[in-house]
Design a protein that fits this description.
By secondary structure, this protein is mostly beta strands. It has two domains: 30 residues, no CATH class; 108 residues, Jelly Rolls. The chain has no helices and twelve strands. Strands 6, 7, 8, 9, 10, 11 and 12 form a seven-stranded antiparallel sheet that branches. Strand 1 and strand 2 form a beta hairpin.
């Protein structure tokens, strides 16, 4: 990745110091200093997907677990299903010997729902955490559903 500011590309950096929400760069040679906003540095994203599929029969609930290989902060959660119905994905995080409830997302009478606020959620995942998903709800019509979590790091 190449950093740029209004003056163009920032040359070889020997020092980067955070100052009041900005980074002050001191480059080699002439010791020219430039400042960029931290918001100018792009975030990288990752998606974590968990699917429950009952091969054409209505889902009867279930659990799934996945190992977190790259830590992130969750920014959105969505469920998409093969048909309109109700299904809830409740998430918990296992870190060491501690299990924490993270939050849940519910599909109710539609084929897709997306939550980008995650109000009340525990949203951080670290390398080595185990994410547990408990599928439940009325489950009256859905035969396949996918939970997608979007995180930034």
């Amino acid at each position: 990745m190449t950093l740029q500011d209004a003056e163009g590309e920032i040359p070889i950096i020997t020092t980067a110091v955070p100052v009041d929400g900005e980074l002050l760069f001191r480059s080699g040679g002439g010791y020219e200093s430039r400042t960029i906003q931290l918001t100018d540095i792009p975030q990288q994203t990752q998606e974590i997907r968990v699917t429950i599929d009952n091969s054409g029969s209505v889902i009867t609930g279930g659990t799934a677990s996945t190992y977190i290989e790259k830590g992130c902060t969750l920014k959105a959660a969505s469920i998409y299903a093969d048909q309109a119905g109700e299904v809830t994905a409740s998430l918990s995080r296992v870190r060491g010997t501690t299990t924490d409830y993270m939050g849940s997302v519910t599909l109710n009478g539609v084929t897709g729902v997306r939550d980008t606020t995650l109000i009340g959620w525990t949203s951080d995942l670290a390398i080595g955490d185990v994410l547990h998903v408990n599928w439940g709800g009325t489950l009256d019509a859905v035969t396949r559903a996918t939970l997608t979590l979007r995180g930034e790091y």
